[in-house]
What does this fold into?
Amino acid sequence: MAFQRRQFLHLATGAVALCVLSVGIFGNGAWSQSARTIKVVVPFPPGGGTDILARILGEQISRAQGLTILIENRPGAGAVIGTEAVSRAAPDGNTLLVAAPAFVISPRLRKLNYDPLTSFEPICQLTSTPTVLLVNSASPYRTLSELLDVARARPGSLTMGGIPGSPLHLGFEMLKRTANVDMTFVPYAGGAPAVSALLGNHVTSVFLPYSGLEEQLKTGRLRALASASRTRSEALPDVPTVAESGYKDFETDFWNGLLAPAKTPKETVSQLAGWFTAAMLVPEVKAKLVTQNLYPVGMCGADFGAVLRKQYVEYGRIIAEANIKAD
It folds into this structure.
């Protein structure tokens, strides 16, 4: 398994490097200016993972390219306010969006003035943050299979806490259908109250991003049964994935990606991809990101667009089947 982890990290780094090489070939000389201000809109409040990511990369790109990267927080309405503002911006590369899964979820919950698949040009998926299914350390469940076996034998008796309308709420609904179990979702306003409920034995399990859970896992207060990543997480190398636990192709990570308004020139998109992926290859930058549980991905262009389309379809299906409504 150690070999698999090293191989995955090598492949991930290689993917980022390949993206840098390709955009360097196609984007060289395009849209290159020595004095330019680029506004990066973060549709969330300051201090969160998406905001931290934008500021770390913005600082590095400013140094490397001699540009001014201005981070603008425009939170509200499930990331809709900031996202809509970017959709209306001029397609000149001067206004960008750092998005998260809400980008493809919010349009499935309410009618909006933009389309996530046609109103933007996908630049790159920048990072991924592992998500984990957790139980209280005093719980009798030591594997995901044990938890789901009981849920299957006693329909409706087990509960899972999480944030309503979040990608992990949808991931919970996906898991229920994939495993053919009946569990009850218990909504909480955020990860902290959900974890408090789990520690107090008010819910059987929670499904949350790994960020903020390190201390409880290290001290043994919580037990991770599975991660929802495509492969085992660098942060949790001994925790199997849901797919490894018998549910093939199950994946629901928390990601961050970079987008531009639709009709931004391809050369500009290519150069932006090169700047951002190159920034993530800088050792001290990568170290800062990993400290925040933001693991570089560097999937760019059409590949990132395909991921967005796939999630938009999958989340739409789950929202419809589970009859999930906007708050």
